[in-house]
Design goal:
The chain is α+β, with helices and mostly antiparallel strands and about 290 residues long. It has two domains: about 5-140, no CATH class; about 155-294, OB fold (Dihydrolipoamide Acetyltransferase, E2P) (Beta Barrel), CATH 2.40.50.1020. The protein is about 55% helix and about 20% strand. It is elongated.
Length: about 290
């Protein structure tokens, strides 16, 4: 899970909770969440700020340890339950300190808070999980359509195909190098951008950028930045803006790719090798054509 998804989940949960509590509070005997006066607004805002901090810290910790811990669905659910327990304990403590007199027992308040918060968190997480699954299936379908197009195109002369493997060494994606534009590192994933039927599509592969770089060392793909790899076959030109350099690819739909100083030499070397191989190929084709005419 990348940082954008984790932080987006926090915003979605807080937004959903506002609508949920607006409906739930009038029917609850233990909820004091309200905006009717300055005091209620202050307590509600204070609780939300602390709850937001708890969720943000939780997501940042999850983001930092996910490279060391394999988050199975069970571990992910247990992590969410831990978030709910912590927020419920804070709500109970906050209620005990600032809300008086208490008509409900502490345990009853904590039990109801746990049930309410689990609903507030579970519904957004379920929606986001279904959306993520739908997006993943859509990408897999696009990949399948692309691979089928490689097989069915009878009159096309194919350049070399590139195989891409995941963390476990399983083959996940085979792509025509003439269709591949660039790759972007996103935490423990690499996002692959390629062209199919005139459209720029993407596929998310769970793998280390360094591993892919090593596996593709003999292809036209080269590392140009800590977060980017490009296909030199798709480079239109390289421009310099100030002290920075950028690669402009042959598709107008793709933003310029930054080039790091430490990778610039490797980039130029790869371009020279590609140009040399192209010249050799053209020369060989010319010789074969001359022999055929003779």
């Amino acid at each position: 899970m990348n940082r954008k998804y984790l932080l987006g989940s926090v915003i979605f949960i807080l937004t959903f909770s506002a609508f949920f509590l607006a409906i739930y509070t009038p029917f609850s005997s233990t909820s004091w969440i309200s905006l009717r006066d300055a005091q209620s607004f202050g307590m509600t805002a204070s609780f939300y700020i602390v709850a937001l901090a708890i969720l943000l810290v939780s997501k940042l910790i999850m983001h930092s340890v996910q490279s060391k811990i394999d988050f199975t669905p069970l571990k992910y659910i247990l992590w969410i339950i831990a978030e709910v327990v912590i927020i419920s304990l804070f709500y109970t403590h906050f209620t005990y300190i600032f809300i008086a007199p208490l008509e409900e027992s502490i345990f009853n308040i904590m039990f109801k808070a746990f049930g309410c918060i689990i609903l507030i968190i579970a519904i957004p997480y379920t929606i986001m999980t279904l959306f993520a699954a739908y997006k993943a299936k859509t990408e897999e379908l696009q990949m399948l359509q692309y691979e089928l197009s490689l097989v069915s195109g009878e009159s096309v002369v194919y350049p070399s195909l590139i195989n891409l493997y995941d963390y476990n060494g399983a083959l996940k994606f085979t792509i025509n190098s003439d269709s591949l534009y660039y790759m972007e590192s996103q935490d423990n994933y690499v996002k692959i951008f390629y062209e199919n039927n005139g459209k720029i599509l993407s596929y998310m592969l769970r793998s280390r950028t360094k591993t892919i770089e090593e596996n593709l060392s003999d292809t036209s793909v080269v590392r140009c930045h800590r977060s980017y790899m490009v296909n030199v076959m798709k480079i239109n030109h390289i421009k310099k803006g100030g002290k920075a350099r950028y690669i402009v690819l042959s598709s107008d739909d793709i933003k310029p790719i930054p080039v790091s100083k430490s990778y610039f030499k490797n980039l130029i070397t790869k371009i020279d090798k590609y140009n040399t191989s192209q010249a050799a190929t053209l020369a060989a084709e010319g010789e074969e054509s001359d022999k055929a005419e003779a």
